[in-house]
Structures are given as structure tokens and as C-alpha cells.
Amino acid sequence: MITLKSPREIHEMAESGAILAGMHAGVREMIKPGMSSWDIEEFALKYFKEHDAIPEQIGFEGFKYATCISVNDEICHGFPRKDLIFKDGDLVKVDTVVNYHGAMSDSCWSYVVGKSTPEIDRLMDVTKKSLYLGIDQAQVGNRIGDIGAAIQHFAEDENGFGDVREFIGHGIGPTMHESPNVPHYGEAGKGLRLRPGMTITIEPMITMGDWQAVMDDPNGWTARTQDGSICCQYEHTLAITNDGPKILTSQDPEFDAKYLL
């Protein structure tokens, strides 16, 4: 079922999103070679507690952690671990969902550890631009397919990267995953028409190689690229409004100025 949010509910989700964005800003400052992905998990737990927020992922279908932390060829749903030690050039994706007094927000951000490479920089740049091209299509009257088509064309046709199909965006609030599904590929003009009050995530996962994923981790959660290529992801929660798409998880108000409430 698709729930349409009131302006009050959207503002409450933006408050949740501000907490989530603050957590990501903290990760950006702390991430470095020699630390573990478990250090990020502990930081997130402490940050959410200090801000009276609940890490909504804990307990979801048996998931045990506040964060998903996926490194290099891991696409998504990586477990934070004490023995996963970061080194120069690792590409780390940190994904989490926050419940703040009943309002949900969901965001993933990618971080390069220490010294980057031109190839990693380009992948991150294309992935972030793909996200914002998708957001630009999240207009009242457009269709879900317009979002996916914009992302797929830019990532694959213009830049030669892989656009993961197996994992997609979704509706959010009052629960973590709701309708509609929001694929990052597709055909313009096809799919559900977007209406004011919808709140969705857009979260492209873009690879240096092919788009196929494989579930080969014994934990039953973590997906990797089938060809071992590095994957990047960026994700925002946004509201569909008559004034255009409004990002609810912004980390950079100046950059996102035209998308803010």
C-alpha cells in the first residue's frame, strides 16, 4: 500500500533525515585506514542514542545491526565486523534507517578510505550524478520508469558502468519498506505515476564492471558483484511535492538548496 504523507509528516521525516545526515557527516570525519567497520557501527549506535533515535534496521527480518557496511565488491547489506579493517583505497558504503519518534529516513553514502584513485573518483562521481538525475525525474505526474531510465542511461550508456538490477529503491514511512518499488533502470513513461505526498528512496548501485549480483556470503544477506568489480552507492529519502522533489536526508544544504523543504 502507498501512503501519502501530509506536510506535517514530511517535515517529521526531514527531522529524522537530519539525524541520519548528521551520522553520515560523523562517519566522513572518522573513516581512515586501520579502523574497522565495527567502529562505524558503534559510532552510529551512540549517535542515534544521543539524538533519541532508533536504528530501525535492528531486528528487521533478523538483521542484527544498526548499519549495513559494504566494502569494494560488496554491493549491499554487508555486516559490520571487528575483523574488517579498512585500508587505503577501500570504497565503503554505509547504509542505515532511522526512526525518530515514528518518522523514517533511509540513506546510504559512499566513502573512500585514505588515498583514492582516479578510477574510484570517477565511479563515485558518476554514481552521485546518477542519484541526482533520478531525483530530478521525481516530479508530480512523471512515472517511476522516468527515474530508472535517467539513471540507467547515464550510468550505462554514457559512462559504461554497470547498473545493479537486483536491489532497488522503495517507498518509506510509516514502515521501512513500502510500495512503490523504485528500480534504477527501466523505460521512460512507464510505471506508476508519481503523486504529491509520496515518500520514496532512490539508491543507485553502480559498478565498474557488469551489473549482475551474487549472494555468496554465508551470512545470507551480503550481495557482491558477480565479476568482482567495485560497487558504489548513494541514497536519499525524498518527498514528491507540487514544488518538486524534496530531499529529506541532505548532508549539504548549499548543494541541495533547490531540493530542500
TrEMBL record:
Required cofactor names: Co(2+); Zn(2+); Mn(2+); Fe(2+)
InterPro entries, alphabetized: Creatinase/aminopeptidase-like (IPR036005), Pept_M24 (IPR000994), Pept_M24_MAP (IPR001714), Pept_M24A_MAP1 (IPR002467)
Keywords: Aminopeptidase, Hydrolase, Metal-binding, Protease
Enzyme class: hydrolase
A GO BP annotation: proteolysis
Domain of life, per lineage: Bacteria
Residues annotated as binding a divalent metal cation 2: 106, 170, 203, 235
Binding of a divalent metal cation 1, residues: 95, 106, 235
Single annotated GO MF: initiator methionyl aminopeptidase activity
EC number: 3.4.11.18
Domain Peptidase M24 per the UniProt entry, residue ranges: 12-242
Enzymatic reactions: Release of N-terminal amino acids, preferentially methionine, from peptides and arylamides
Binding residue positions for substrate: 77, 177
This protein's GO CC annotations: cytosol
Cofactor mode of binding and number, as noted: Binds 2 divalent metal cations per subunit. Has a high-affinity and a low affinity metal-binding site. The true nature of the physiological cofactor is under debate. The enzyme is active with cobalt, zinc, manganese or divalent iron ions. Most likely, methionine aminopeptidases function as mononuclear Fe(2+)-metalloproteases under physiological conditions, and the catalytically relevant metal-binding site has been assigned to the histidine-containing high-affinity site.
Transmembrane regions: none
Pfam families: Peptidase_M24 (PF00557)
Described function: Removes the N-terminal methionine from nascent proteins. The N-terminal methionine is often cleaved when the second residue in the primary sequence is small and uncharged (Met-Ala-, Cys, Gly, Pro, Ser, Thr, or Val). Requires deformylation of the N(alpha)-formylated initiator methionine before it can be hydrolyzed.
SUBUNIT field: Monomer.
Family: Belongs to the peptidase M24A family. Methionine aminopeptidase type 1 subfamily.
PANTHER family, per database record: METHIONINE AMINOPEPTIDASE (PTHR43330:SF17)
Protein name: Methionine aminopeptidase
Annotated organism of origin: Ligilactobacillus pobuzihii
